[in-house]
């Protein structure tokens, strides 16, 4: 298993956990309420789960990997934007920024 595959698995497992967490954790739902985006919570969770499965499948199919990593990067860029708009601290915003960069890197290496 090469380094890129390790990063893909890490990102996929993370988004799988985050996607499931929305449905089982009140904390995740409360965050969307705090953002004023509660109507987008389920959509976001489904996109995270879809992206996670896309990353897993993308190890064998680079076209799917491009769409999954690109979609997750866009989702996290929007998440960073929301964190900035809410004036969240750098540390609170760091995970969204990290996952944005991680998926941009996966996308870049896939297209290379």
From TrEMBL:
Species: Flavobacterium yafengii
Localization per Swiss-Prot or TrEMBL: Membrane
Pfam families tied to this protein: DoxX_2
Protein's membrane topology: Multi-pass membrane protein
Keyword Cell membrane: no
Keywords assigned by UniProt, alphabetized: Membrane, Transmembrane, Transmembrane helix
GO cellular component, one term: membrane
Domain of life: Bacteria
Record-given protein name: DoxX family protein
Membrane spanning residue stretches: 6-24, 36-56, 62-82, 89-108
Record has DNA-binding as a keyword: no
InterPro entries per UniProt: DoxX
